[in-house]
C-alpha cells in the first residue's frame, strides 16, 4: 500500500512494501548459499533445497513482522521462517546465513530494493528525455524572452529552453543507469572483518 510519508510510493508500492523487503532478504540468503556452492562448500541439492523456499509467497509475513521487535531487525525472524521451511533433512538449514551477520543481509537487501527501484527511475527519465525532445522539435519557432538574474534579456526560443532540459535529463538518465550497476553488497561478518567468511573458505574471502 502507498505510504503517506513516501511521496511517489502510490505509483509503485510493490517496490518498497513489506513483501518487497522480505523478498529482497530471501534473495540475499539464497544468493549466499549459491556463493558457498561456487566455492565448493555445499552441494547443488542444498542450493535447490534453499531456493525452493526463496519466494516471499512461501512465507507468512505476519509472524515475521511480529518477530522483528525482539531482535530489532527483520533478518532474525526471516531466518527462522526460512530454516523452518527448508527443514533439517538435507542439512541445508545449517548453511543458510553461515558467515554473515544480520546487517550484511539487511544492507544488501536494501541495495537490491534500490536496484529494482532505480530501474523504474531510469525508464521514467528516458520517457522524460523523449518528451523534452518532442517539445524542442515542436517549438523551434516559438519565441520567448530569455532572462538573466530573473530580469528580461535577449529573445530566445522555447526549443532552446527545452533542449537544455533535454541535455540535463539525458545526463541524469545515463548517470543513474550507470550507478544502478555499481550498488554494493555487504558480507563482512559479525565484526566486518571477513573473519567468519575466511574461516569457511581460507584465502578466498575477497573473491
Automatic annotation (TrEMBL):
Molecular function terms from GO: isomerase activity; lyase activity
Limits of the Fumarate lyase N-terminal domain: 88-198
Keywords linked to the UniProt accession: Isomerase, Lyase
InterPro entries: Fumarate_lyase_N, L-Aspartase-like
Name this protein carries in UniProt: 3-carboxy-cis,cis-muconate cycloisomerase
Amino acid at each position: 500500500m502507498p505510504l503517506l510519508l513516501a511521496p511517489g510510493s502510490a505509483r509503485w508500492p510493490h517496490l518498497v512494501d513489506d513483501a518487497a523487503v522480505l523478498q529482497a532478504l530471501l534473495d540475499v540468503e539464497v544468493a549466499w548459499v549459491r556463493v558457498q556452492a561456487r566455492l565448493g562448500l555445499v552441494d547443488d541439492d542444498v542450493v535447490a533445497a534453499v531456493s525452493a523456499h526463496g519466494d516471499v509467497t512461501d512465507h507468512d509475513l505476519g509472524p515475521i513482522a511480529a518477530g522483528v521487535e525482539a531482535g530489532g531487525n527483520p533478518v532474525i525472524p526471516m531466518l527462522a521462517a526460512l530454516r523452518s521451511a527448508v527443514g533439517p533433512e538435507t542439512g541445508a538449514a545449517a548453511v543458510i546465513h553461515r558467515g554473515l551477520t544480520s546487517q550484511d543481509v539487511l544492507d544488501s537487501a536494501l541495495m537490491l530494493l534500490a536496484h529494482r527501484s532505480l530501474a523504474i527511475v531510469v525508464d521514467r527519465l528516458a520517457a522524460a528525455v523523449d518528451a523534452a525532445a518532442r517539445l524542442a522539435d515542436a517549438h523551434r519557432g516559438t519565441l520567448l524572452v530569455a532572462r538573466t538574474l530573473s530580469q528580461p534579456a535577449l529573445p530566445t526560443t522555447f526549443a532552446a529552453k527545452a533542449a537544455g532540459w533535454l541535455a540535463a535529463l539525458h545526463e541524469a538518465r545515463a548517470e543513474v543507469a550507470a550507478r544502478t550497476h555499481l550498488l554494493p553488497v555487504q558480507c563482512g561478518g559479525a565484526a566486518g572483518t571477513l573473519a567468519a567468511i575466511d574461516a569457511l573458505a581460507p584465502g578466498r574471502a575477497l573473491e
